[in-house]
Specification:
The structure is a homotetramer of 223-residue chains.
Chain A: H1 26-50, H2 53-60, H3 64-70, H4 74-97, H5 103-120, H6 122-134, H7 136-159, H8 168-189, H9 196-208
The first copy, chain A, binds a DNA duplex (21 and 21 nucleotides) through residues 16-18, 23-25, 27-28, 31, 52-54, 62-69, 72-74.
Chain lengths: 223, 223, 223, 223
DNA sequence: AATGAATGAGGATTCATTCAT
DNA sequence: AATGAATGAATCCTCATTCAT
């Protein structure tokens, strides 16, 4: 993973070590973190079904049984991972967008940040996508969390006059979908190509839409 | 599935009764079609990994061994399904968009058609999405096919002055992603809510973007 | 097992082969019977928990997976075994008792038959006993089935004046317990010692009780 | 357990804190007792195989490792429990039978005491029964101990003319089996029903047997 | 073309026990 | 005396695929 939010933080429902889900000792916390890290690599590379617990523990350098001290099942660690990643991704983007002067700048910065992040965390992309078929509720939570925040930001921007009025919820999901597919196409499938043109092209679409200027009525809206 | 393009047609790389891929007899063709239909239901409801061949044959009313007369593996029938669905979806949308007067009208009609179709074929949505983790090349082919056609249409529209100039490839993937996520959110997850507002909201975004009219410079316009 | 009621009869709820639980073909029925026979040996010798499915299939000469064509779990075959054995035991005893002229003769013959049977089917004894801790309802059914029949016989005997009046239910359970423990002690634990004296001693107790004749009032009952 | 003979007493082959088998300190003795009590509950409710050390320590409020300070294995604590219970049961019955004027009264009182005790210690019943499959020697010892005492009492009673002559060993095992099954049926399975009729019915059988008075020959009596 | 019994590799999970602190 | 993290052998069960009719 990375350094922003260490895996030693608690995410998901661990078992074994203690009722609250958190290991009691430092050693325990470290082992749990190593397992999550190993699971991210394993599931990212092999996928959920091909991924094996035995391989996760091997990567983490612990015995098979140790896995079940911290997670009650393969699915549980997978869920913990998705929740963790949601936290990660949102944190990363939020930080990058923090000092954008207005919504449109934020859109651009956010899109760029997302694509960068996706490129650096290919495993994350795969795991989140696959969660749809492994733990659908975790997947929904992941994107619903995003969409809710996004929607609020768009609403506020409308109120401030930074963007045109419009259905914030639909816009949020539209822009998330747009970003995810660009991430898939240009960050995951073609990780070498420059992202600049992609961000430019997509931002142009987001900012101005497809309609030619000639067709535009200065006051907005059709006559 | 549905009535538009019966599964008894050959799609994908089916093997079995005959070299060309299609069973010779009517009976054979019907059995194959029943298996595909059963597989669509099974994979749509249970997913690829949870879905079982035994259950597919049970649904189709044939013995287990019969499956392998028509398909050489679980993956093969899944691929056949994805290919079939690609064909279906594109056909449906193409028909709905056929007589749109210009690109923007086509965008609106296409989005609407896609969401309608998704709502009526929830299984299809799931199967296509999951193909990403089962037969990645089929998944890529599916969306690349879409994107290529889309890109050409957008390019032509630019040439005709129906839409603003811009990166057609990036736009195509952006708009596909946007549609897919709206389909997931409003057709699959919430199949009851009215689609009208969703189409309106999304089309407004596609047509005009987020930028307020006040801020608009008559792009490349009069001096 | 033995020849009285072949294991190819259906007992318990098989899965796999068909919804009713019965294999469709002769070959299937034979395999299922071989598995039950192997399970009786394995569980009888090693006990339920030590007994291994792999060993059962090895004894039966089939592959591991074949087990699950006929039984859905280790517990299920165990239950099937208990049910089968109930049938077996009752059949054996019923046959031996069939032509006893009256209830007391039947008691003697039944006790003798039970002890003989227990000695020849040590595995059965263990399996039935252990079912108490593996499938308690199967165990209860086993003995409740016995007790119900026994009770009816005792009642009828009272009506006919063959035995003294008394609580048939309590007597049935008392006599079953008496027999089971004698079986354990003299058939299972000490399989070589002659059974004659045991039957004599126990029957004397059953027939006449402990009370000395001197204390007896001719008409029965205490004054 | 109960208050008659606290588990903090040493019974069985406990090891741990000290060579003699008993912890030296008061704290140690208390912990050991808590573990035994927890084990009785756990094994009684879940059975030996389903019962888990982790759950025993949880119930006892100590850490897993602490278990092995007092007992060297799961089986050992189980054996300790069986031994303890043997002591308990015999003590209870002996006390209740102590002032019976003759053997037949003692039989009645003993049966009654046993059923009462079984009803109050359902866990005990289960644990003793299951020991057959966990620690067969402990089980044999348990019942052989009973049977030996019982046999001696019966022999003495015969000598005193309190009961008819007869094979004391066979009678002892018969009466134990009778009691155990009545305990199972009327104390464990149906703990609400009144015990009076059960005791009456069984004692009537024990005292006088099944044979009608009419059929009685003044056994060896006057010519 | 169809059947259904048989296969067996593969993997998740359990839990008594050990050990370093 | 007590802790709780770590161990890893042991096994049930699944299910896509094959094969003999």
């Amino acid at each position: 993973m990375n350094q922003h939010s260490p895996l030693s933080q608690n995410v998901g429902t661990a078992s074994g070590a203690d009722e609250s889900g958190l290991p009691k000792t430092r050693r325990g916390r470290e082992t749990r973190a190593r397992l999550l890290e190993a699971a991210a690599a394993e599931f990212g590379e092999r996928g959920y079904h091909e991924g094996a617990i035995a391989e996760i523990t091997r990567r983490a350098g612990v015995a098979m049984g140790t896995f079940y001290v911290y997670f009650s099942s393969k699915e549980e660690i997978f869920r913990a991972l998705v929740a963790h990643m949601s936290h990660e991704t949102r944190g990363y983007i939020a930080a990058k967008v923090a000092d954008a002067p207005d919504r449109l700048s934020a859109e651009r910065a956010g899109l760029q940040a997302f694509l960068e992040f996706a490129r650096q965390h290919t495993n994350l992309y795969r795991i989140v996508m696959e969660s749809q078929f492994v733990a659908e509720d975790a997947y929904r939570d992941y994107y619903t969390g995003f969409a809710d925040g996004y929607r609020r930001n768009l609403q506020r921007a409308v109120e401030r006059g930074e963007i045109r009025a419009g259905d914030a919820e639909v816009r949020a999901w539209s822009l998330i979908g747009l970003s995810v597919f660009l991430g898939m196409r240009y960050a995951v499938w073609e990780p070498q190509a420059p992202l600049g043109p992609v961000v430019d092209g997509a931002f142009d679409l987001i900012e101005r839409g497809l309609m030619p200027a000639a067709a535009m009525v200065p006051s907005g809206g059709r006559p």
